[in-house]
Design a protein that fits this description.
The chain is of the alpha/beta class. It has 25 helices and 17 strands. This is Methylmalonyl-CoA mutase family protein.
Length: 643
């Protein structure tokens, strides 16, 4: 076919009903609703989306309200994003060397972990190329120190963002900030507004909530609630809403739910515009700085190289969502990180930039029926949740009464249950576990030498800055009102504890092994035996197979020879019927103190008969594998427990 003829070919338009009919035909007549799945945001995901299913296509162009498709008409062609992974260093001298190398190798901003270099002097800080590259740092407890250093430099050319979200920082500690802490924070941001007009210093960081289990709706709503808190708080100090907003930087953690994370960032801009409109703020002021870091919430110490995939997915979705800077976390962050981990964190965004050309397409996610629908549903749900929080008194009030903590805990519980029952997979952790891998030990965090706790005024603190003044010397310790802390725990931790326990048992000389009683020929028991092996390996339990047992006597002989504390019978349902409960009785007769399970689920009536003959339990798909393996390790350790 000639090229002109190919170009002339027309594809007939298919109606929505035809798409639906074709899809349902592949399901043998079942409804598409059988493929609907609910997210942690209580949004129903569908297998098929079209224009008819899309709620809102009002935002047709980037750079126009409500900015769903981005704050800038030209996207990254107009305002390029920055590659800003945090550089870890123990000393100020080493930081300068590592930062110099990082900038030469593709880093585009000054970003570092303040806590790790608390003894850095003002001289070392000022030696950084602060006027050449934007500054993107989370100062945590050391905001006043960094602010004092910046004020001494007095450069109007410093750009980027440096700040602490005092609300989320204190919430993570189980506090709400005191009036004294807020007063010092207000003095600092006021002084910085005059001295460094291009620097964003009011940070809204939803990372602690994200790591506490928050879903996308909660993250967006909390970000808005915190924004209202800062606007109202600084209004009392003489700031106008537009002055507060112009100094804001929103920082999100980006998880591994690819499409949801894209929609989260797009939905945030949409509701942010609505919030700004309610304060009478419009135009350029609405275009706040939005950045992201890849989440360690879904990181695992086990099979840590899988974290590279999680990081890659997170960076990809952050850039498609339209962030202005991205901080990729090293895949081995939990154990170091190593120089390789730091290099990979720096290079993943560069690969996406230079080989996937993410900076060359304006809003590449725009127009996707799926993402547009998800964005609309997220923005509506987040706005409603935000209104509820405001009606309850705002972010401080809902932290004090524990509402936020309870909501996050509920989502966290659901996330953990889904991993424990394997409704969701975490490769290398609750599926495809490497039995021979040792759990890496976390390196202890450096201790911070704190002094200067009696300083009462920010001006006094700033005046004390000398060339050799360290960040630690400018630390101001403060307490607030106690609340339920935002508990931050990685999803992989329960599985890591199982493996760590198995390793300790092995070091103590205990046998962490299970015997698999395999019924019939290989092709009949292999499927269930492989399943049991994979389940036990999650808890660090090795499996020893019996070989093909054709009779009850052969099974009993395997138990006698192997001398293990735990066995699991594996075979087809037909084999279970053939051998019957007498198999359990014979095995228990051989050694009555063993724990005996069966692979798969029996009917209630059949299971009752097997249990009467000595069966203790079963290993089956959908059970809480964390509880099951915890009980098994107890038994192998010699501790009696209920199954």
């Amino acid at each position: 076919m000639r090229i002109q003829e190919m170009k002339a070919q027309q594809f007939p338009k298919a109606a929505w009903s035809e798409w639906r009919k074709t899809a349902e035909a592949s399901l043998n007549g079942q409804s598409l609703q059988t493929l609907h799945t609910a997210t942690y945001e209580n949004i129903l995901l569908k297998p098929l989306y079209g224009r008819e299913e899309t709620a809102d296509f009002a935002d047709q162009y980037p750079g126009f309200p409500s900015y769903t498709r981005g704050f800038y008409e030209g996207g990254y062609l107009e305002t390029s994003w920055k590659n800003a992974p945090s550089v870890k260093s123990d000393t100020g001298t080493d930081l300068k060397k590592k930062m110099s190398v990082a900038l030469q190798e593709g880093q585009q901003a000054l970003s570092f972990v303040v806590e790790d270099i608390s003894q850095m002097t003002f001289t070392q800080f000022s030696a950084l190329p602060l006027e050449e590259y934007p500054l993107y740092i989370h100062t945590n407890d050391h905001f006043l120190a960094i602010a004092s250093f910046l004020l001494k430099i007095k450069s109007s050319r410093v750009t980027g963002a440096a700040g602490t979200d005092i609300v989320s920082l204190y919430a993570k500690k189980g506090l709400v900030p005191s009036e004294r802490a807020l007063a010092l924070q207000a003095e600092a941001v006021t002084a910085l507004r005059k001295a460094l007009p291009k620097l964003k210093t009011i940070r809204i960081d939803t990372t602690p909530y994200h790591e506490g289990g928050a879903n996308a709706v909660q993250e967006i709503a909390i970000a808005l609630a915190e924004a209202v808190f800062y606007i109202e708080w600084l209004k009392e100090k003489g700031w106008s809403p537009v002055e507060v907003i112009e100094k804001m930087c929103f920082h999100f953690a980006i998880g591994s739910q690819f499409f949801m994370e894209i929609a989260k960032l797009r939905a945030f801009r949409k509701v942010w515009y609505a919030l700004c409109s309610s304060y009478g703020v419009s135009g350029e002021a609405v275009k706040v700085l939005v950045g992201a870091e890849t989440s360690i919430f879904t990181f695992s110490k086990l099979d840590s190289h899988v974290n590279l995939l999680r990081t890659g997915s997170g960076v990809f979705s952050a850039l498609l969502g339209g962030v202005e800077y991205v901080q990729a976390v090293p895949f081995d962050q939990l154990n170091g990180p190593s120089s390789l981990g730091e290099r990979m964190a720096r290079n993943i965004p560069l690969i996406l930039q230079h080989e996937s050309y993410l900076g060359e397409v304006i809003d590449p996610a725009g127009g996707s029926y799926y993402i547009e629908t998800l964005t609309t549903e997220l923005s509506q749900a987040a706005w409603e949740h935000f209104i509820q929080m405001e009606a309850a008194g705002g972010i401080i009030s809902v932290l004090k009464d524990g509402t936020v903590q309870k909501e996050l805990a509920a989502v966290m519980k659901k996330r953990r249950e889904d991993l424990a029952t394997q409704k969701r997979s975490m490769i290398g952790t609750n599926s495809y576990a490497d039995l021979h891998e040792q759990v890496p030990k976390e390196k202890p965090k450096p201790s911070v030498s704190l002094s200067g706790e009696s300083i009462s005024l920010f001006q006094e603190l700033t005046g004390k800055v000398k060339d050799q003044t360290t960040i630690a010397a400018l630390y101001v310790k403060d307490s607030g009102t106690a609340v339920i802390p935002i508990s931050s725990k990685r999803l992989a931790e329960p599985f890591e504890r199982l493996r760590e326990r198995a390793e300790r048992m092995q070091l103590l000389g205990k046998k962490v092994k299970a015997g698999l009683i395999c019924l019939g020929p290989l092709k009949e028991f292999k499927l269930r035996a492989d399943f049991v092996i994979s389940q036990l390996s999650i808890g660090g339990i090795e499996s020893e197979l019996s070989g093909e047992c054709q009779t009850i006597e052969e099974a009993a002989q395997f138990v006698k020879e192997s001398q293990l504390a735990y066995y699991c019978i594996c075979g087809k349902d037909e084999a279970y019927e053939q051998f019957g409960p007498s198999l359990a009785a014979a095995v228990k007769k051989e050694r009555n103190n063993i724990l005996l399970d069966l692979a798969g689920k029996l009917s209630a009536e059949t299971e009752a008969k097997w249990r009467c003959s000595g069966l203790d339990g079963s290993v089956y798909s959908g059970q809480n594998i964390v509880k099951k393996l915890t009980a098994l390790l107890h038994r192998l350790e010699g501790v009696e427990t209920s199954d």
